[in-house]
């Protein structure tokens, strides 16, 4: 029998927060996979810049997955962990082709912005529940994704 969780957040709020974090985890995982795919397959005159930038971004995303999943667990709920479940929960679609470099950048801008939006949607519940650890995690994720979107977006300017 599981021990009751008494951390000052109601079970109902913990469930809502865990559900929101599950969407964040799914978006983050799909974006990780897409970014890694593009790192492997980018070509063209921006190859070196994009290859390096994509590696930096997918490495950061990979490291964030554990933080998000462990927060879901700390709230008392199982973290989703299958491709099938991630696809069901994510607002980002997978890419199974090899787009041109500029299209890769556009997709990654959209993906970075989508993850920021997902984090922001969960924030209202987290704030109301007085859940500072999750608020801190979400704030950090929004900052990273908004900055990444900006850095990618400037590469599309003429």
TrEMBL record:
Entry keywords, A to Z: DNA-binding
Protein's organism: Azospira oryzae
Family matches, as InterPro entries: DPS_DNA-bd, DPS_DNA-bd_CS, Ferritin-like, Ferritin-like_SF, Ferritin_DPS_dom
CDD domains in the cross-refs: DPS
Protein name, entry field: Starvation-inducible DNA-binding protein
Pfam family, one: Ferritin
Family to which this protein belongs: Belongs to the Dps family.
PROSITE patterns assigned: DPS_2 (PS00819)
Domain Ferritin/DPS, first and last residues per copy: 19-157
Molecular function terms, GO-annotated: DNA binding
Superkingdom assignment: Bacteria
Gene3D superfamilies registered for this protein in UniProt: 1.20.1260.10
